[in-house]
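DM from R.C. (forwarded with permission)

"hey, sorry to bug you on a friday — could you get me a structure for this? deadline for the figure draft is monday and I only need the backbone to look sensible"
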Amino acid sequence: MLRRAGPSLRHFLLEGKSSAGYSSYSNKAKMSRPVQARRLEGIDKNIWVEFVKLAATYSKVNLGQGFPDFPPPDFLKESFVRALSGENHMLHQYTRAFGHPPLVKILAQFFGKLLGRDLDPMTNVMVTVGAYQALFCCFQALVDEGDEVIIIEPFFDCYEPMVKMAGGTPVFVPLRPKAPKDGKLMSSADWQLDPAELASKFSERTKAIVLNSPNNPLGKVFSREELELIADLCVKHDVLCLSDEVYEWLVYDGKEHIRIASLQGMWDRTVIIGSAGKTFSATGWKVGWTVGPNRLLQHLRTVHQNSVYHCATVAQEAVAQGFQRELELYGKPDSYFVQLPKELQQKRDWLVQSLDAVGMKPIIPEGTYFLVADISKFKSNVPDVPDSDEPYDSRFAKWMVKNKGLAAIPLSAFYSGAHKNNYNHFIRFCFAKEEATLKAANDILQKWKQEKTSP
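My reply, with the result:
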């Protein structure tokens, strides 16, 4: 039997740990080079991380983050249970990477009807992990170093960092408010693009424009005239349109959601982005999709297959069944797409009255879950801090959740850094909440009003 000569490797390592030599080696072994990729520079902060934590710590009523606190419709929950507990055990396994076949087929059928064209479920539809991943795929697949992407302000906050991560340059153009006549409450329709200003943002470097209608945070539903202005510029300058339409069913007061891809010259240059979370009030399921021409979606599929690759099969199956029901009931009173906006319009009107009664002037949204209110009359509660780097509405929202227990989001979070102080006297509320939640918010506001008016 051979004997091992000399000390064991374990003995050598243990001895070495206690020696000064090992300490010196350890110090040298520490990495001194940057570990963060350059594409992450300047995009590490996120409004939701901060305000979700504040709401969880202090709020009695959370009207900040955009999710319903009521359940999805029964038919959708039942579809999920059937998919989860049924005999088809393959629903617990991988499905097609770019979308569960039943889901892409019904999405192609449904949106083909809305767009007035035949859609191929295998090439014109791709399922994603929520609309968030759909957006990420768009920017990664279609935006290159040096490309400019036009973003309409205010905008959902992920657009800017996603453009930058792709190597692109965001170019911002604002919706500008016009004061209503006769002292009426402002509407989201009063926030409009300046046609000349928008046209000036297009150049030979422009690769795409991001359109969000209905718009988060304002609730603006772009009119046909406004969409035609955008479409004409896209065609003239050969620019793509990334159309975020996750709130497409949530429009009020008889307004119509018009899909820009249906306008002349736009189908071949548009990617439509949708969300089952917003469509069926099930944001935690994280099922989204893109609809568009194969010449664009083929590149999104490349990003998808090399990142997420696959989305939850059971959730896709349930959403497919939900859409099948809605196709059969399309336009009828029993359709969830008809019932939900009616219910949300009532909730919107209730919150409008609550805010207006206490002196926060609401901007009446034409769509979405959201309502923006002017807090100018409440500045006595939270005085301005001269030369502060933090926008006023951000400090106000933090003060409000800590002192009043009511959570909302500052509108400045939806603007680029250079423009955050231009519209810093507004905050955003979410009204997709149970009646009890909205009543509790009203109670806080009424008590606050009494405190302000009492001697």
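R.C.: lifesaver. The first strand starts at residue 61 and ends at 62.
me: no worries. Residues 332 and 338 are 7 Å apart (CA to CA).
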